[in-house]
Amino acid sequence: MNIALLGEDVLRQTAQAVEDFSDAGLAAFIAKLKQAMLAAGGIGIAAPQVFDPRAVMIIASKANERYPDAPDMLPVVMINPTIISCSPEMEKGWEGCLSVPKLRGLVPRHRQVTFSYQDEQGTEHCLTWQGFLARIFQHEYDHLTGKVWLDRVESMADVIAEEVYFSRLQANR
């Protein structure tokens, strides 16, 4: 699967709700989406990032080369996610994106988010995440609403080359 890059129209469109959970093509697509995310070293991915208009995203936080401090969790497939509430407290944190390669940005996000989603069988779930997992959720959810992290940075001074980000990370260890 090819990753859509900044400037591709699909990254600026609102994703379409999934209605048919019995479609065998949905399960096959989700398997390929997971594979694309892992192959690229991502900790989350949304369908529009692979040129698919459906409201599907996967979050799979795991320490890797791109995110050495990420907490480990099993992948969670989220279909038709909806934000229920967000904490008023905001936190800035560094983000990267498979669709915005070679850059990192200091992005303000809600510290906590409560959301609902459907799993691959269409069963509805509700979760509350905070900290880094809330950040990943909001980042991937943005892809379903036609936004990228660059839309959220407060200043271009908060955007740096990924190479600089990693050298700073190494220096601080």
Helix content: 10-25%
Class from helix and strand fractions = alpha+beta
Order of helices and strands: HEEEEEEEHEH
Query: What amount of the residues lies in strands?
Result: 25-35%
Shape: globular
Distance between the termini: 35 Å
CATH superfamily: Peptide deformylase
Tell how many strands the DSSP assignment holds.
8
User: Runs with pLDDT <50, length 5+?
Assistant: none
How would you characterize the overall build of this protein?
The protein has 173 residues and is of the alpha+beta class. The protein has a single domain, classed as Peptide Deformylase. The chain is 23% helix and 31% strand. The chain contains 3 helices and 8 strands. The chain has a 5-stranded antiparallel beta sheet. A 3-stranded antiparallel beta sheet has the order 4-5-8. The mean pLDDT is 95.
What layout of secondary structure does this protein have?
Blueprint: H1 24-39, E1 44-46, E2 56-59, E3 76-86, E4 90-97, E5 100-110, E6 112-118, E7 124-130, H2 131-144, E8 159-161, H3 162-171
Antiparallel strand pairs: 1-2, 2-3, 3-6, 4-5, 5-8, 6-7
